[in-house]
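Bench log, entry 3. Co-assembly request; chain sequences pasted below exactly as received.
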Amino acid sequence: MKIKASLNYNLNYTKYAAGIYMAIRQVIVLIITLTFSLRFKNEFTNLSSSGFDSSNIIFIFICGLVFFKDQFFAQIQFGRSKETAVVSSLTSIAILAMAISFVDFIIAWFYAAGFGGELFSNFRSLYFQNYSGKLTFGVSLLNMLWNFFYLAFIGSIGYLIALINYKLPKKFRLLVWLGIPVLLIIINTRLVFTRGGLEFLTNFYGFTKTIFGLPFNSAGSPIKIYLTGTLLFMVNGFISLLLINKTPIKD
Amino acid sequence: MKLEFKHITKTFGNLKALDDINLVLEDKKIYGILGRNGAGKTTMMRCLAGWIMPDEGEILLDGKKIYGSDELLSKIFFMSEAQTWPKDMNFIEVAKVCKDFYPDSFNYDIALDYASKFNLNTKKKLSKLSTGYVSIYKICLTLAMDTDIVMYDEPVLGLDANHRQLFYSLLVESYARKMKMILISTHLIEEVSSLFEEVIIIKESKVLVYLPTEELVGAGWSVTGKEELVEKFISDKKALSSNKLGGLMTSCYLGKKGNQEGLQFDALDLQHLFIELTNSKEVSYEN
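Structure output for the full assembly:
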């Protein structure tokens, strides 16, 4: 499998978009930091960053969609098999997820080291909201891994959706574009919000809890989500490989 | 180098795009792939490029299956009409990508040289170029590619006569630089027929003809003369078409040149022969 050039291509193609996204996000963080600092001074010590985690999820999901669109076809054009194109795209998504998680890790640690002053002393990422704990170097690493596995999984879902959409006849595409995102929103809602959120989905919550192993403010091990994320990423990849084999390249 | 199509069949829904295609291409020559719209030329090329998996049969390069093999697919370059090219990149960026994917086969400097010969704006993104320059953009990259097999699917789409002439001369230059198997699918047969060393005609998803161009061109004739003489002459020939005007009749047929008095014989050129072969409903050509 000749994957090096494909990875170079994918990551070069995405690096500017990822860079711009991260920069915009950090500018927003900075503006909020300054605004809240001036307004609340030292009284405010619990700024949640879950909104930024959610933006990561949306970004990587869109990357997954786009990776099937442009990058996949370019690799086919440049003499790679469809299987290689899928594997390199999914690997690129994983690398991108790791890069985003690593940047977040650095930023979190930057604040934890005191550069954010009192304001970010209680850096409330999704991980901390789910697992609590004190912001230490070790916990930040666990947080980074949590982000990575989760983001890689979300990216692979985006990729799979784009692939299914490409394969389906036009009349069924609406089903994909409405059905799967709705399903994802429901799952993500349950992942992002605690029980106080959408109570009518209590039964579904039980299901997602079983599937994802996410304990939601209860005691539990983040290793469950590492394993679940890896497993689901591989399942999505496997389904993608099965689907791509007989998919003709259309105009 | 030996390229084999073995019983290739491909169906899209109810449409049979390729029906039991069997071909063996052995030499590094320029092959013309001709056929009417929808005959199956592009599908055949896409199968060879690994873009489409045949329902039946296999394509072998030196005895190895092409489909799914990066090793073999990187020996093939396909200039397609499809939207597979990176549309948000300019020519220079894509040339660098080509060099990355084909480090031993792509000639970066030559690609830029060709782009300047065509006056292509190398800093403009593909999506911003006109139809003609989109073709030129692809042509310049493909001409600079020295893979074992290079395929052109309708390369001169939207090109003016001057650019088409330049393309043909650069194609010969590219072939002379490195001998390779070049497959060209085009509808502008008359312009490019002199370049073809061998011709494959596809009709209704099947290979109708696969012959050296010289042999094929010598196989079709038109005979003109008095109606009764022409009718008598072609009675035992494979007639392709006939036209009557007044007492005169012209018939096209497959076979050898006749020498009967009162009849005028003219060789059919490749385009004329192609039209006759692909228009006739029942004609079959035995190589």
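Residues 4-244 of chain A form one domain. Chain A has one domain: 4-244.
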